[in-house]
């Protein structure tokens, strides 16, 4: 097997009770080197194993919430997903949601059919269920890799790890240790006695003690200590390595991108860009909605009569779940319920994540609300989005970065914002300019700078 440039980062998704925790525990116990050394593996939200000489990073924050939050704020965190489906239970609502998450993240995945040790295990049914959702596994009309496992007995786990590594090879895990440092917060807490404690997963570059910590342009601390999941402290952490970091002034949020120089953060606006970019000159933006109902009949009825002014990102029967909230966060969706609600903890999570959850018992009120949503979104976007440009080249200038761009929609104007950064210089050719219109090329400087690469779309707005 070819050596990878860095460890692949793996996440496990699936329905509750299908065996995520058992699988992660089994892999960790069987493979963690620290155990052999007699070290204590601490729970920091991720761990690494050594599988036949190849390090693999597993994110073990359970549930989808973290996964979505990370994708939302940090772009791709996991390189590969393991979709776990219990062989005795088959595809369940959260299996479907997991598939949605994986599709949105755009990462490859392997299906792990778990609990094959049980007498009632029905592997064929799982494959058929998946095919019904358009996910065709190997040997069942498609090429999604599938491995039969038992987290309980250990059957198939090695094969699963092999498959993960094969996918990693195809994905080409680039060594990014020479690039500017950027790390994503995958877990954070206030530790009594130690202060804010966060686990960072390094996306590129390196971290060492005494490095300054920045969130965008804001300094948020200085590294006091770095601890690996094995419990050992380290002076140097490299890409795809999870490290527990002490030294933050405040507890950072899961999904925040942390850098060691100011202003290198990826703008949230840049990540949000995709869904709003079409709005500038063409059709108005459609708000995303998640529909939840009490029974299948009402769901069908609602879906059948929804106006096309909204975009349904997910719909299912049952109370609002944590993963609905997570999906709503990542897709900026409103959760619209008919005869169901969000329970206590889920409702609280919704409040924390600022997700709008609205419940109706009368169907026409629900439709009135949906109509209003469409109008609301149209107005908001018309006010805000000003232009979109594609980065053609980048070059340094007086310690700053100039982005050579082609305006692809609307206008790019001096003083407009991109995320939280401002366009502080705009030139067309050698001349300074106040605005550049569609199809014009221009050079812009952002303050604070954002880490755009060639080919990225820059979306500007005027809040
Ligand atoms: P999670 O909610 O997805 O994290 O699922 P857990 O790992 O907590 O597993 C749920 C239940 O299924 C637990 O009682 C596990 O002991 C059991 N379980 C997990 N994997 C297997 C397996 O391979 N075989 C059997 N028989 N039981 C399993």
From TrEMBL:
Alphabetical list of Pfam families matching this protein = EF-G_D2 (PF22042), GTP_EFTU (PF00009), IF-2 (PF11987)
Domain Tr-type G per the UniProt entry, residue ranges: 5-174
- What keyword terms does UniProt attach to this protein? GTP-binding, Initiation factor, Nucleotide-binding, Protein biosynthesis
What PROSITE patterns does this protein's entry cite?
Answer: G_TR_2
Give the superkingdom in one word.
Bacteria
Look up keyword Nucleotide-binding and say if it applies: yes
Give a GO cellular-component term. cytoplasm
| MF annotations from Gene Ontology | GTP binding; GTPase activity; translation initiation factor activity
Kindly give the PANTHER family that the UniProt entry links to this protein: TR-TYPE G DOMAIN-CONTAINING PROTEIN, TRANSLATION INITIATION FACTOR IF-2-RELATED
Which NCBIfam families does the record cross-reference, listed alphabetically? small_GTP
Family recorded in the similarity comment: Belongs to the TRAFAC class translation factor GTPase superfamily. Classic translation factor GTPase family. IF-2 subfamily.
In Swiss-Prot or TrEMBL terms, this protein is called Tr-type G domain-containing protein
């Amino acid at each position: 097997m070819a050596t990878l440039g860095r460890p692949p980062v793996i996440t496990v998704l699936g329905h509750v009770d299908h065996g995520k925790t058992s699988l992660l525990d089994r892999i960790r116990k069987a493979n963690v080197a620290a155990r052999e050394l007699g070290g204590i593996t601490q729970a920091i939200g991720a761990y690494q194993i050594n599988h036949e000489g190849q390090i693999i990073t597993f994110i073990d924050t359970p549930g989808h919430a973290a996964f979505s939050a990370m994708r939302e704020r940090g772009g791709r965190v996991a390189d590969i997903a393991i979709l776990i489906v219990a062989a005795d239970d088959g595809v369940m609502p959260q299996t479907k949601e997991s598939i949605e998450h994986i599709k949105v993240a755009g990462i490859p995945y392997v299906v792990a059919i778990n609990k094959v040790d049980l007498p009632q295990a029905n592997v064929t049914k799982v494959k058929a269920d998946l095919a019904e959702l358009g996910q065709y596994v190997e040997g069942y009309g498609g090429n999604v890799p599938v491995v039969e496992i038992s987290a309980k007995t250990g059957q198939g786990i090695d094969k699963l790890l092999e498959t993960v590594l094969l996918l990693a090879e195809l994905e080409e895990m680039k060594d990014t240790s020479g690039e500017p440092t950027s790390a994503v917060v995958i877990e954070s807490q206030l530790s009594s006695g130690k202060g804010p404690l966060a686990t960072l997963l390094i996306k590129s570059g390196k971290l060492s003690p005494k490095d300054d910590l920045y969130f965008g342009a804001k300094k948020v601390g200085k590294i006091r200590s770095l601890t690996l999941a094995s419990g050992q402290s380290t002076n140097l952490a490299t890409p795809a390595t999870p490290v527990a970091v002490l030294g933050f002034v405040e507890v950072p949020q899961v999904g925040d991108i942390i850098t060691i120089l100011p202003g290198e953060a990826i703008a949230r606006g840049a990540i949000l860009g995709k869904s709003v970019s079409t709005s500038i000159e063409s059709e108005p933006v459609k708000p995303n909605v998640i529909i939840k109902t009490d029974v299948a009949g009402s769901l069908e009825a609602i879906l059948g009569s929804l106006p096309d002014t909204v975009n349904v990102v997910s719909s299912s029967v049952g109370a609002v779940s944590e993963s609905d909230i997570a999906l709503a966060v990542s897709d900026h969706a409103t959760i619209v319920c008919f005869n169901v609600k969000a329970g206590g903890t889920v409702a609280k999570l919704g409040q924390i994540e600022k997700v709008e959850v609205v419940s109706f018992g009368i169907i026409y009120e629900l439709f009135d609300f949906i109509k209003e949503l469409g109008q609301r979104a149209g107005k908001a976007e018309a006010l805000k989005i000003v232009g979109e440009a594609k980065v053609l080249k980048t070059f340094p200038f007086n310690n700053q970065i100039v982005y050579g761009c082609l305006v692809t929609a609307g206008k790019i104007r001096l003083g407009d914002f991109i995320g939280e950064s401002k366009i502080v210089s705009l030139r067309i050719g050698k001349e300074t300019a106040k605005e550049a219109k569609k199809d014009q090329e221009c050079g812009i400087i952002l303050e604070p700078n954002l880490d755009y690469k060639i080919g990225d779309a820059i979306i500007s707005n005027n809040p």
